[in-house]
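Researcher: Good morning. I'm working through a list of sequences from a screen, and I'd like to move beyond sequence-only analysis. For each chain I'm collecting a predicted structure so we can compare shapes side by side. This is the next one on the list. No need for commentary yet; just the structure.
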Amino acid sequence: MTGPHISREFDIAIRNLKDQVLLMAGMARQNLERAMSALLNRDIELSRAVIDDDTDVDKLEIKVDQSGMDILVRHHPVASDLRLVISSMKISTCLERISDHAVNIAKRAKKICKGPELQDVALTEPLYLMADGLLRDAMTSFTDSNIGLAEGLKQRDREIDRVYNNLMTTFVGQLEAPHGKAESLLHLIFVIRSLERIADLAVNIGEDAVFLGNAQDIRHVSRIQAVTNDASGDQ
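Model: Good morning. Structure tokens for this chain:
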């Protein structure tokens, strides 16, 4: 990042934008934590609170977009400052979607809690902890300009995908068993799907952190390299 600017107003606007993104990240993570607590502890009231509070995250996303556009129009940032504005606006979109997934988990939790106790719910906690850890480190890579941490997120996401696929196999395999748990298991499948998507969104945040730090776009790099290698092998 560049040092202090000639315009104090610009410095304040940039700092406020970053603070808004960090506040939004804290709210999204809190919603996710409460949604999973509601699921694991069969707390219907907590589920309702998560659903009600999601509008605060939506409002903050709009505020981040407005702040970013105002900086672009009034101050015409360049280089790392421009990348900060762009990255902040993109990250806020990811955080809004993460909060939406937290709401989806809360809604599923509320429905599961209305049925008989489901022991399989406990199997989702390791996946949640992994996804939340990925999100935490993605935001750390953004705030601390930690490129190495950001670049390591994709590899960790592969392990999350492995755990997710194993859980999916377990839950789907039980759906047709004569135990009366099919509906709750179906809700649980949607819960782990949301957790897997949250991890993917955390990886996207890490990619934005890399773009912010060194102006490198690493989206789809592994896929592009694979296609390039295949093409070279065909020659």
